[in-house]
Structures are given as structure tokens and as C-alpha cells.
Amino acid sequence: MGLRQHPFIRELLSLNLPTDDYVVAGSGPLLAHGLRRDVNDLDIVARADAWKIALSMADVTVPPSGHGQMVALFDGDIEIFDRWLPGTPNPDAMIDCAEMVEGIPFCPLSWVLEWKVFSSREKDLRDIELIRQRMEAPQP
Description:
The structure is a single chain. By secondary structure, this protein is α+β, with helices and mostly antiparallel strands. The protein has one domain (about 5-105): Beta Polymerase, domain 2, CATH 3.30.460. It has 6 helices and 6 strands. The strands form 2 sheets. It has a 4-stranded mixed β-sheet with strand order 1-2-4-3. Strands 5-6 form a two-stranded antiparallel sheet. Strand 5 and strand 6 (about 105) form a beta hairpin. The longest helix is centred in the C-terminal third of the chain and has 12 residues, at about 125-135. It starts with 6 loop residues before the first helix and ends with a helix. The model has no long low-confidence stretch (mean pLDDT about 95).
């Protein structure tokens, strides 16, 4: 199954968000790089027009981190944030450094690794290992 056939990616693309105003964060980049086949949801950091679109689709809530604002769509499959976790770069920096995979902006794996190591949650340990293996592998 290609990236664009994944149900969460299809939902994301159906929103028609401008690609220069959002980035997929969280575990989404592992999906994009083929390190995982499934994720619990897609975490999106948005600004400008992409954030305005999100605001027009659902009520704003406070995210679990307590940092910023969040809009949950598709029964929580897509969570759109106006900023990412405390201590991470601002949305502009995150979006401007996105890596495009099949026309979709994703956070670099090195950033995802940094956040997952910092949080050191039990659920992130396998992802940390997968990213490290990918980054250490010789590139063709």
C-alpha cells in the first residue's frame, strides 16, 4: 500500500490544506519513510491558511501537552496543532524545514528522534530504535 492510500493520509489530503502551511509531526514521518505501517493518528502542525481551515472544521481544544491549541478531526485520526510540544521549534521553523514525501510535508526523522528520546515514553522506544537503524544505514 502506497503512502497516499493510507486511510489517515487520505483524510489529511481531503482537507486540501496548503502544503506550505503545515507539516506532519509525531509518528507520521515513520509512516512516510516506511518504518511503520500504522500509527494511532496523524499529528499536524499548522499555521496561516491551514490553521484557519482547521478552525473552520471543529472546535478548538487544549492538547494533552497543555501547550497551544488543537483541533481534532475524523474522530481523532487527524489532530491539528497551532504549535508542537514545549521546547520544540516554532511552527514556522518546523514547516519551513519539512521534507516532502509524495508531495506531503513531514518533519525530518532526526527531529522526530530528538523528541522521542526527550520524552522517553515506553511507546516510543521501538520508534527510537527504528529511526536510529535507518539513520545509521548506508544510503544508496
